[in-house]
Specification:
1 helix
């Protein structure tokens, strides 16, 4: 499955992604049922998110994303 943003109209992960939009991070759909339901409420699609669905960082406020490093 390609790493493409699930949000309608978003070009993140597509070959024609506009470079001027800058870098982005892809987030997997949450496994927690309540959180998954919230994501589905905010994404305007008839289909629901699947475990393989991704949403890019362009659709989150900066305070919604916590950056952390993972020990190697």
């Amino acid at each position: 499955m390609p790493n493409r943003c699930y949000v309608p109209g978003c070009k993140s992960g597509f070959p024609d992604y506009p470079k001027y939009l800058g870098k982005f991070t892809m987030f997997s759909a949450p496994k927690d049922g309540k959180l998954l339901k919230r994501w589905n409420e905010f994404i305007p699609r008839k289909e629901t998110l699947k475990p393989s669905s991704k949403v890019c960082s362009h659709h989150f406020a900066s305070g919604d994303v916590f950056k952390q490093t993972t020990p190697s």
